[in-house]
TrEMBL record:
<dbReference type="InterPro" id="IPR006480">
    <property type="entry name" value="Phage_holin_4_1"/>
</dbReference>
<keyword id="KW-0812">Transmembrane</keyword>
<protein>
    <submittedName>
        <fullName>Phage holin protein [Lactobacillus acidipiscis]</fullName>
    </submittedName>
</protein>
<keyword id="KW-0472">Membrane</keyword>
<dbReference type="GO" id="GO:0016020">
    <property type="term" value="C:membrane"/>
</dbReference>
<keyword id="KW-1133">Transmembrane helix</keyword>
<feature type="transmembrane region" description="Helical">
    <location>
        <begin position="57"/>
        <end position="74"/>
    </location>
</feature>
<dbReference type="Pfam" id="PF05105">
    <property type="entry name" value="Phage_holin_4_1"/>
</dbReference>
<comment type="similarity">
    <text>Belongs to the bacteriophage holin family. Cp-1 holin subfamily.</text>
</comment>
<feature type="transmembrane region" description="Helical">
    <location>
        <begin position="20"/>
        <end position="37"/>
    </location>
</feature>
């Protein structure tokens, strides 16, 4: 099957109207912002490392480029439901990361969410152990 360049280009430009793409980009932006805020406000402020932030930013850029390249091809080949599912997976993954960042920043979250997320559950156990020792 030969891919039509005009149709592929149309699919690329039509991503600007796609809710999944917008939610994905918003989730990535919030993850970057909350992650950086967590790094700045954490107890390890003196140990901030720009190389860690750069690695994280590069990882985000690579994921964005891969998804925004694959999505129009899958759509063109008739696999839009799969493209949306992949995008939904990444939206969920980044959203979980945002919630973890918010929890680690000390923002009160419902107990059911804390219990469901390993990072926050471990952090809460550490906090409880610290309070019991003092």
């Amino acid at each position: 099957m030969l891919l039509d360049d005009h149709e592929l280009l149309f699919n690329v430009f039509s991503m600007k109207d796609n809710l999944y793409v917008h939610l994905f980009i918003i989730a990535v932006i919030f993850d970057i912002l909350t992650g950086n805020l967590r790094g700045i406000l954490s107890n390890n402020y003196q140990k901030l490392d720009s190389s860690i932030g750069l690695k994280g930013l590069l990882k985000h850029i690579i994921v964005i480029l891969i998804l925004l390249t694959i999505y129009p091809y899958l759509t063109l080949l008739g696999f839009k439901p799969y493209a949306n599912t992949i995008m939904g997976f990444y939206i969920l993954n980044y959203s979980i990361s945002v919630v973890e960042n918010l929890g680690q920043l000390g923002i009160k979250l419902p107990h059911s969410i804390i219990k469901s997320l390993a990072k926050l559950s471990d952090q809460q156990e550490e906090n409880n152990n610290d309070h019991q020792q003092h």
